[in-house]
């Protein structure tokens, strides 16, 4: 019986660290959403005032969609080698922070007995600015996302920062309205936090772009 030869030739495939694998990052995001969803439920049970109005529900549903794209863009950017380390850190903060928010939004909507996502296809009707859901202010187009996927190095830094600044500006517009017109303390607090954190991130991103 012949013994099969062992191929000792070097493997040309490079094994990336787990944090550079987009699939691993997506899995991590899903795990965070599930985990923080449970946490959000506990927080909601303790702090939420009753009788949410249309702004509470609309904000939670539409901002969930808005946040999901921000997480998607951050994960795309995180997976790229050779990018600016400060941009890289900001993108991780965005991915984690907005994943936490998504978990809280889902659990609050469950608690209110409402759908976990906007099923009408029309966003922002709750703030009297109806628009197709995929064209809410700040959302990137498919072409924008393709540009981010294709970009490398410093070009990726610029594309990511530019898209995220516009994304945050649209989100702040929605958050500021909800902070004023929502009925529950939890949604009001969430909207104020979203507006504040995204305003700070815009300032950071603009400063970094100016220094490039």
From TrEMBL:
Keyword GTP-binding recorded: no
Membrane-crossing segments per the record: 25-44
Gene3D superfamilies xref list: 1.20.1260.10
Keyword terms, alphabetized: Membrane, Transmembrane, Transmembrane helix
InterPro entries for this protein: DUF305_CopM-like (IPR005183), Ferritin-like (IPR012347)
Domain DUF305: 56-208
Protein name: Unannotated protein
Entry annotated with the keyword Disulfide bond: no
């Amino acid at each position: 019986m012949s013994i099969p030869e062992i191929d000792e030739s070097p493997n040309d495939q490079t094994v990336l660290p787990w944090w550079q694998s987009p699939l691993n990052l997506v899995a991590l995001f899903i795990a965070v959403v599930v985990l923080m969803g449970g946490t959000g439920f506990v927080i909601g049970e303790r702090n939420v005032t009753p009788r949410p109005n249309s702004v509470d529900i609309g904000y939670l549903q539409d901002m969930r969609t808005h946040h999901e794209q921000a997480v998607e863009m951050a994960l795309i950017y995180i997976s790229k080698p050779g990018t600016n380390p400060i941009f890289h850190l900001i993108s991780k903060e965005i991915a984690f922070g907005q994943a936490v928010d998504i978990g809280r939004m889902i659990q609050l909507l469950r608690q209110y007995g409402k759908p976990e996502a906007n099923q009408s296809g029309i966003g922002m009707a709750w703030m009297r600015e109806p628009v197709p859901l995929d064209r809410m202010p700040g959302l990137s187009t498919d072409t924008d996302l393709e540009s981010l996927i294709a970009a490398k190095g410093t070009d990726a830094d610029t594309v990511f920062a530019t898209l995220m600044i516009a994304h945050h500006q649209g989100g702040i517009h929605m958050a500021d309205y909800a902070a004023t017109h929502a009925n529950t303390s939890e949604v009001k607090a969430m909207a104020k936090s979203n507006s504040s954190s995204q305003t700070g991130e815009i300032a950071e991103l603009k400063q970094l772009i100016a220094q490039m």
